Amino acid sequence: MFEPLERTHQRIREAAVACGRDPKTVRLVAVSKTVPAEHIRPAIEGGVEILGENYIQEAGDKIEQLTDADVSWHFIGHLQSNKAKFAVRWFDMIHTVDSVKLAREINKQAAKHDKVQNILIQVNIGMEDAKSGASEADTISLIREISPFENISVKGLMTIPPFFDAPEKVRPYFKALVALRDKIAAENIPNISMEELSMGMSGDFETAICEGATLVRIGTAIFGERQ
Ligand SMILES: *Cc1c(COP(=O)(O)O)cnc(C)c1O
């Protein structure tokens, strides 16, 4: 048993139930950036099914050390086009696609592997200068451009809202992502599903779940503070 993981799963279940959601509709992405493979293993043994990584090089090393483990890897960091080939090789889901250029490269690499790469569109919902992500206004046109790519399957949206120390302050940003998701879903664009909403981290995942998150990305609450 891995205590912080048990506690996190419990909090996820309680947050879902408190907001009238089926806990099975919320999946945990355990964020293992900076955590060495030998410390990830207990989490996998404790039942983690999805691991999230931010840096390609670091992820590749760990994925190789953990090839025997039955887990799915999600890429949640900023992805440069020239690293797309590695992301396609190693990750079941890429959460951070925010440009046609990157999508085109992912599509090309996925075709080489005979793979249909699952992706999420990262939205800069707080319109912060320093953050990656498509602007809310550009997201639909970006999705329309990606729609014909045969080796990409868009599964939904992801966001990293502005940082606040109080989760209540983040709620409007989660609501804005949900509203955008609903707007895109209503357009019925071919090859575009809006089933996933990746939002919520250690400090605010309960709020995100209440607003409709299907993937919560949690690092610190499971693995402790990063150096
Ligand atoms: C590091 C990271 C997380 C996890 O953050 P915690 O606060 O440690 O839970 C989630 N999402 C992204 C994109 C991250 O980079």
Q: Which key terms come to mind for this protein?
A:
single chain, 227 residues, alpha/beta, TIM Barrel, 8-stranded parallel sheet, 8 strands, globular, binds pyridoxal-5'-phosphate
Task: Provide a short characterization of the protein structure.
About 45% of the residues lie in helices and about 20% in strands.
Averaged pLDDT: 97
Query: What is the string of helix and strand elements?
Result: HEHEHEHEHEHEHEHEH
Strand content: 15-25%
Bound molecules: pyridoxal-5'-phosphate
Cα Rg = 17 Å
CATH class: Alpha Beta
Number of DSSP strand runs:
8
* Principal-axes shape call: globular
Give your account of this protein's structure.
This protein has 227 residues and is of the alpha/beta class. The protein has a single domain, classed as TIM Barrel (Alpha-Beta Barrel), CATH 3.20.20. It contains nine helices and eight strands. It has an eight-stranded parallel beta sheet. β3 (72-75), α4 and β4 (93-97) form a beta-alpha-beta unit. The radius of gyration is 17 Å and the shape is globular.
Give the helices and strands, then pairings.
Layout: H1 3-18, E1 27-31, H2 37-45, E2 50-53, H3 56-65, E3 72-75, H4 84-90, E4 93-97, H5 100-112, E5 117-123, H6 136-146, E6 152-159, H7 167-186, E7 192-198, H8 205-211, E8 215-218, H9 220-223
Parallel strand pairs: 1-2, 1-8, 2-3, 3-4, 4-5, 5-6, 6-7
Helix pairs in contact: 1-8, 4-5, 7-8
The structure holds pyridoxal-5'-phosphate.
Pyridoxal-5'-phosphate is lined by residues 31, 33, 54, 76, 160, 201-203, 217-221.
